[in-house]
Amino acid sequence: MVDAQDWREHGVRVVRAGQLDSNTPQTPGMSRAAAIDAARVGAERLWAGTVTIHPDAKTGAHHHGALESVIYVLRGRARMRWGEQLEFVAEAGAGDFIFVPPYVPHQEINASSDEPLDCVLVRSGSEAVVVNLDIEPVERPDAVYWVDPLHREPTGDE
Question: Is 141 part of any domain?
Fold first, then answer.
């Protein structure tokens, strides 16, 4: 059993907003900052941080190796492109979650011309893995809609 002193030194950790570490792998077009990782808090199975993309900016194509990623949109409008040629596209707004499976080539785009896109990132490993790719973006990406019993594909009237 762990005694109270161990919990004090190895228990809950708070990383303040001003303590985020921007010395983490970057992708052109965005600014990442780590909050939770192995080095900062001793995390063993996850990485968490923030990302900001300036108005009208887009990131370079990249993936995160074997890691799963979750992106939570705090503010702004995210346009995600993914696929071998970034041929698929979907958008998410404030309050939406985005899931990116392992090895999926993707690109984040700020769909707003006047508001920054601010997101929280969480990944399934404790180290920051970023593999930047040299992919030519497509002219006309295919829209992909979340279609299930609760969500139907837009008809164009919406």
Answer: yes
